[in-house]
Design a protein that fits this description.
The chain is of the alpha/beta class. The chain has helices at residues 27-40, 59-72, 87-98, 117-131, 141-144, 150-158, 173-183, 197-202, 215-237, 241-247, 253-263, 284-292; strands at residues 9-13, 44-47, 78-82, 107-111, 135-139, 163-168, 188-190, 207-210.
Length: 302
Amino acid sequence: MTVQKLAPGVWGVLATPLTPDGASVDTDSLTRQVQHYVRIGATGLTALGVFGEAARLTPDERQTVVRTVAAAAPELPLVIGLSALDADAACAEAANVLDVLDRSPAGLMVQVGSPDPDAVVRQLTTVAERTGQGIVVQDYPVMSGVSIATADLVEVVRRVPAAVAVKSESAPSPPAVAILAAGLSVPVFGGLGGTGLLDELAVGSAGAMTGFSVPEGLIACVNAFRDGGFAAAREAWLDYLPLVNFEFQAGIALALRKHSLVHRGLIASPAVRPPAAPAPEPLLPVLLEHLRRTPHALRVAS
């Protein structure tokens, strides 16, 4: 198996837009969202991640998402998320979506499924060997319910030749990113809505792989760090931080980001699927105040 490490930069994690009743995937909105990432210079895209509500989509809907994203951005590399922690179930998910792709993805994103390094090596190796694809190793204990020691995760990734990147979302993320980046030859990306982005860059991350609703800010920060270091990145990121903090509220982050994307004209409806909670009504005017004061957050599409 020949795999290629992910390029550094910003890999946009896509929301899955739904019709107002939440019953179907809104492919027109998904296409607009993807085309926006192309316009602003994203390094790549990630579909069917946690932000994409992948675990709440049917197999047919997952195919629809992957087919739509690939058609809307044939020039951008694509990471595809797998929701299942069990290797057999993850392979079934992969087979379903790979069947509709006319090109290989940049990687399959697989969540760490055990605190035991040997078990995780078996899990990731099984998915890689059965699918023939590179693996983005995602460590997100809040979503997976699995916590693995960072030193053990370094050991795991070293033992999986198919690993093409790590997405580190074990809070607090900067200490974990520092250990991973120092110990691995594959790139390490931060997530968590960009809440730790500046500090993650400072300790060695390769960029961001997350679903912030104004990804122009992620790109500005990452590019500024590359060109001018910490001070330049801090200056570029300051104006985005209040919105980053506001959007990443436990339990309602998904709904808030979808409302932001609606205000930006990138998707048509903020509908989410249970058990995700809708955005509390009293916070919606506050969201508008944040958007009015955030660079690039004015309406960008009709």
